[in-house]
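Sync notes, pocket subgroup
Present: LS, DG
LS reminded everyone that the earlier model was apo-only. Rerun requested with zinc ion included. Inputs:
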Amino acid sequence: MFVTINISTKSPEEFIDITSLVEGKVRASGVKEGLITVFIPHTTASVTINENADPSVAKDIISNLDKVIPPRGNYSHMEGNSHAHIKSSLIGSSRQIIIQNGRLKLGTWQGIYFCEFDGPRKREVWVKISD
Ligand code: ZN
């Protein structure tokens, strides 16, 4: 089963918790045991799994990535969003998660984040659920 999740980001850089959206797609699929792949079809966004209990964790990731890869810098790419391309590559375009008993098998403190690095934009998350 393949589904697209549409999201609209609101800031230049932000992490959006998409765990419940993804879990909803698992429930709708009826798959009880399997795998889900979450894929981001963009070059200036990505997906990661990290703590979603304390929102300051995502804030710290964004602010510290900015220290290493600042939005303004000596880049060659003329579009002016090189930092976003680099962050997208570092974090990565996809994650795979186990489905067990019809639910995402995530650690207690883990959530799935859509990572925007060149927003605000309309974005897609591609999801493939296999049993
Ligand atoms: Zn670009």
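DG: The helical segments are 19-29, 56-68, 82-91.
LS: Strands lie at 2-8, 14-17, 34-39, 45-51, 94-100, 103-104, 110-116, 122-130.
Action: DG to write up.
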